[in-house]
Amino acid sequence: MATLNAIDPTPEQIKAFLGDSAEGEPVFMLNLLKFKDKATYRDREDVSGATAYGRYAKAFSAMLSDLNLEGVETVYSGHAHNFLIGDGEGEWDAIAVVRYPDAKTMFETVSSDAYRKFHYHRKAGLDGQLLIRCDDENVF
Questions:
Q1: Closest C-alpha among 65, 89, 71, 92 to residue 80
Q2: What is the percentage of the chain residues whose pLDDT exceeds 90?
């Protein structure tokens, strides 16, 4: 099975994401992140992709605090290291899980004017990612 890192969702993915989620049903967004070696800022600032993405993450956290969005939180974030099972060394640099009260809130958060003000850091630093909607069904 092939995976494809991307930067933005397709219109079909957005429609499925919003259509498959019930209002008020929490979603956990699993972020598998791959950074550029060198960020691609328009002014050609010489920093790593990880540094640029770190700026994005810091601004995202501040925005959540400023907007006081209840139920939105970063549950986990950390660096990706070696594989114990499977193969894909170097495919992802970091992992984050962010909880939202529902899919609509998640989509509205990342579509807001406040978000657009710092989104360029994400684009400058991110080579690609997998962003996977998860539920809290306690499968195991």
A1: 92
A2: 62
